[in-house]
Write a structure and sequence with these properties.
The protein has about 425 residues and is an alpha+beta fold. It folds into two domains: about 45-160 and about 195-215, Lipocalin, CATH 2.40.128; about 230-425, no CATH class. It has eight helices and 30 strands.
Length: about 425
């Protein structure tokens, strides 16, 4: 029993370090603007013929049908819809909401600890409201924030028991100087056998890549305007001339660069992210620390996991939002700070920093999430999700004075960016 509690305590300490970067009290809790503006494009396709999307183009989609290697069946119909526009010089070729349909072509449940569960979904048709259906040839390339791997042919391959949470946390604690056998016994008592089935609910985001060009009969109108309003533009020009470029840690160590500006009220922001499927991060406390330990040990998605506190203008973020799926180690997330600037028509303005966690980063003195180095991809994700939620009136890329191009987070992760900020003007009545 003593070893069991030692394992729990060790995991809790490292979980608290992971969330905030320190032991501190969480252990006790648990135990020239002149370059101007540029219009936003969510996805660009080099057309080889009129109204044609080139092969190799990515389609960003969201499942409308739940799929599972345990409960789905071979040839089951599957549908999804576009959550980012695909544009060309001719206009919008694949609009938000365009439906793709297909079926499950391969379904292999796991039958042995050494076998991977596998699933292959083939989509063969794209339908745009008011347009004739178009033939689609594409393959899965990514399931966002999933613990599973996507193979070259588009097959989704599940994790093995030894690679699931218990085995990986065992190895992690060995590296951190804790007895792995204790963790293994603890995990067996508290978590049971790891679930290695492939399970994706409605709302799962994924990416298809076109294997052949996709031709549509005509273009569609964009979902949001490509230029923010004049009052918002004027407020941003004045504000960005003086605004900081980066946030800071509690010890004033430079952190993430600011890459978002949102115009709207607090209620509009909360409603927009909720509709878009993002959850509000909880403050670190007894219950959230326990839930963090559980999520780390079982490798489950924790949509309200605490984030480390970062500072702008000497204060912590006003809001933090995140979006995850089925693993603790991957999540989209961002922080927002309200600033004193308002638009001429009285709307509030918020600065934000967004990053994408893609794994675990361990180096001397740090246990943290590893981030995707491409911050511009995460910036686009935020804008696309809010637009798909119907909450946005306009989006525009802003080039600020003295833009940054590369740097490190407060925990040492490397990032790169084009230095632009995405200005998102929310609808007053979505």
């Amino acid at each position: 029993m003593k070893d069991w509690f030692s394992g729990i305590r060790c995991l809790a300490v490292h979980a608290c370090r992971f969330v905030c970067g320190h032991h501190w009290s969480c252990v006790a809790l648990l135990i020239s603007f002149g370059a101007g503006f540029g219009a936003v494009g969510f996805g660009y396709a080099q057309a080889t013929a009129p109204n044609t999307v080139a092969s190799g183009t990515k389609l960003y989609l969201r499942l409308e049908t739940a799929v599972s290697t345990e409960s789905s069946h071979l040839n089951q119909a599957v549908s999804a819809h576009a959550v980012r526009e695909v544009t060309s010089s001719q206009g919008v070729l694949v609009p938000l909401g365009a439906e793709v349909t297909g079926s499950i072509a391969k379904l292999i449940p796991t039958s042995d600890p050494t076998d991977h569960a596998r699933m292959l979904i083939v989509f063969n048709q794209l339908t745009i409201a008011g347009h004739p259906a178009a033939k689609l040839a594409a393959h899965f390339a990514e399931v966002e924030n999933a613990r599973e791997t996507v193979l070259a042919d588009g097959t989704i391959q599940g994790v093995l028991e030894k690679d699931a949470a218990v085995g990986r946390m065992d190895g992690l604690l060995d590296k951190l100087g804790s007895p792995g056998s204790t963790m293994e016994r603890m995990s067996g008592k508290t978590l049971g056998k790891p679930d290695t089935a492939i399970e994706y609910p409605v709302g799962t985001d994924f990416v298809l890549v076109l294997d052949q060009p996709l031709t549509v009969d005509s273009t569609s109108p964009p979902a949001v305007a490509g230029e923010i309003s004049k009052p918002a533009s004027a407020a941003l020009q004045a504000m960005l001339a003086e605004a900081p470029s980066r946030v800071q840690s509690k010890t004033k160590k430079p952190g993430d660069p600011l890459n978002l500006v949102i115009v709207g009220s607090a209620d509009q922001i909360l409603n927009a992210f909720k509709t878009a499927g993002w959850g509000a991060a909880k403050k670190l406390g007894t219950h959230s620390a326990v839930d963090t330990v559980r999520a780390m040990a079982s490798d489950e998605g924790y949509e309200a996991a605490p984030v480390s506190e970062l500072y702008l203008f000497g204060r912590v973020e006003d809001f933090a939002f995140e979006k995850t799926l089925n693993t603790f180690w991957k999540r989209h997330h961002l922080r927002l700070w309200r600033i004193t600037t308002t638009t001429a028509d009285g709307r509030q303005v918020w600065l934000g920093a967004s990053t994408h966690d893609i794994g675990l980063d361990i180096h001397p003195g740090v246990i943290s999430h590893e981030i995707d180095t491409d911050l511009d991809a995460e910036r686009a994700k935020v804008g696309a999700d809010l637009a798909a939620a119907g909450a946005v009136s306009a989006e525009q890329l802003v080039t600020r004075p003295n833009p940054l191009s590369t740097g490190k987070t407060a925990t040492g992760g490397t990032w790169t960016t084009d230095g632009k900020m995405l200005a998102i003007e929310l609808k007053t009545n979505p």
